[in-house]
Amino acid sequence: MLRRVTWAWEAICSLTVLVGVMAATLTGCSVHGRMAIPAQADRIGSGSGAKLTVVNVMRFGRLHVLDRDDDTILWAGDVQLGQTLVINGFAHKVLLDGRTVAEGVVAKHHYVVFLS
After folding, report:
1. What residue ranges of the chain have pLDDT lower than 50?
2. Residue 63's closest CA among 88, 50, 46, 48?
3. What whole-number distance in Å separates Cα of residue 114 and Cα of residue 10?
4. Mean pLDDT over the full length of the chain
């Protein structure tokens, strides 16, 4: 009887370790911040949240708004030629053609806009 309990306990411990390793592997491999932006993306604008930053989109693609201070992507989305992106630190928002697409702009942070 003791041998079965010991074997069952070892099996449970092994399974727990395996699940922990798998969870760490899955969450540890996620890419974020600047590393999530394609290497071929063009830097098309930058500014601080303390003032309005306006970027006019010159071609179709995907915009990425990077909070350089936190190294996080504040917003990413597909855009079309002629659209205007505004980073408004006063309202704490990112606007695309006047429509709010993200919130959480920090006035003291620096933002960089990439187009891929």
Report:
1. 17-27
2. 46
3. 51
4. 84
